Amino acid sequence: MVSSESMSVAEVTGSGVPVSGDDIDTDQILPARFLKEITFENMGKYAFHDERYDDDGNPTAHPLNEYDGNILVVNDNFGCGSSREHAPQGLMRWGIDGIVGESFAEIFADNCKSLGIPTLTTSPETVAELQSFIKRNPDEQLTIDVRTGRVAYDGGSVNGSIDGGAQEALLKGVYDTTAVMYANLEATEDTASKLPYVDAE
Amino acid sequence: MSENTLYDKVWDQHKVATLPNGADQLFIGLHLIHEVTSPQAFAMLEQRDLEVAFPDRTIATSDHVVPTDPETRSRPFADEQAETMLSALEQNVEDAGIRFFGPGSGDQGITHVMAPELGLSQPGMTVVCGDSHTSTHGAFGAIGVGIGTSQIRDVFATGCIAAEKAAVRRVEVTGSLGAGVSAKDVILKIIGDLGVDGGVGHVYEYGGPAIRGLDMEGRLAVCNMSIEGGARAGYINPDETTYAYLRGREFAPDGQEWVQHRDYWESMRSEPDASYDDVVEVDADGLAPMVTWGINPGQVIEVTETIPRPEDLPENKRDTARKAYDHMEIEPGDTMTGYDIDVAFLGTCTNGRFTDFREAAQILDGEHVAEDVRALAVPGSERVKRKCEEAGIADVFRQAGFQWREPGCSMCLAMNDDQLYGDEVCASSSNRNFVGRQGSKEGRTVLMSPAMVAAAAVDGAVTDAREYNDEDGLDTATDESDPGVNA
Question: What interface predicted TM-score (ipTM) does this complex get?
Answer without folding.
Answer: 0.89
